[in-house]
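Budget justification note: compute hours in this period were largely spent on complex prediction jobs such as the one shown. Inputs:
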Amino acid sequence: MAQSLDRLKESPSQTAGPYVHIGLTPNFCGIGGVYASDLGSTMVNDQTKGERIELRIRVLDGTGTPLKDALVEIWQADAAGLYNSPAELRGTADPNFLGWGRQPTDMETGVCLFQTIKPGRVPFRDGRLMAPHITLWIVARGINVGLNTRLYFSDEDKANAEDPILARIEHRLRVPTLIAERQGDTYVFDVHLQGEKETVFFDS
Amino acid sequence: MAESGSNRAPETGAFFQRDRQWHPPAFTPGYKSSVLRSPRKALLSFDNTLSELTGPVFGHAMLGEFDNDLIHNFAKPGESAIGERIIVHGRVLDERGKGVPGVLLEFWQANAGGRYRHKKDGYLAPLDPNFGGCGRAITGEDGGYAFRTVRPGPYPWPNGPNDWRPAHIHFSVFGHGFAQRLITQMYFEGDPLIWRCPIVGGISDKAAVEALIAALDMHSTIPMDALAYKFDIVLRGRRSTLFENRPEGN
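Corresponding output:
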């Protein structure tokens, strides 16, 4: 026997279930008075630097039906490409932008909306710039382990073409599953959990 | 660089690879909701970039006085939630065994009768007017946390014709990097429903299920007031950055 590495195992994931709102967006589901507001519901203020955009996101099941009980979190860099995080060592991010947001999908329409800013470009590990993107984390009843993916932007063709993560996708016809379509100041993004149009999900 | 709320230097190493055999797979047909909501194609694997290594900081200042007291945070003045009073406490560690400070924990649960305060829950057990079912805490320097609540009841759910959830508390865990993001559930020692639950059954390794079962902790009880359960949570560890990949000569 060799020495023990004394490592622990990550706690196994379990589904967020149908009542995830009670814990993460209680005001949204009618539990008022516990928290002043739902965490992550507002991302920008008057002083936040950058281009205002809206993300219009749906999560669709294998039949194409939008999930009405999902919860989406996003994490992104500021307009200059800096993360508001202790692990960001390249500079100081915009103090008026945390870069993190949380929204439930609407219980009737399945749509969730984020009012945010367009992120700047962030370097890949080797220094090449990644295309502007927003990281998504999706949980819901029926999802056993939270799903990670990214939202890229349809008006960033040149940057998308040189993005090192998009370049890793073997089946090129799946690349568009990660690209949100610009309509005015809104980016429309459908996440397909399975089927022909299944979104590329990440293990990173 | 954002304020970390800690004296420790920020860690920037990549997270340990997630052990997908240890977690439940996406497709667990015994849990019917997973059938149409499970990705079937291979995940795209890559070493963490800054987008996964970084994450926001939640300061203790955001917490209200009763955020970690579910017995009182929705109750009318002078009243309290009905049920078996318990304290849940433990530490958030990473896979290296280090306590993780500054972790945002959010919990939610059914009331003592097994009923959620949610319009989608039609179980005939009554709502408790003094119980909302949500709470939150942020771990201290050693990764420790605690909250007070009532033990949730088990309840039937529409999966099989007669499936019951074991008593459980949902935990959302927000560590330092967005790639550590985790939701899990805490079960109670000795509950025979754990081993009959189709959601728990998605986990194949018995040791992994046991990692989600909180132990009765008589040393942390409050005599004549509350029982206590200890529940430790483990987040992905991170690699050291002593020797980064760099071209020779740099």
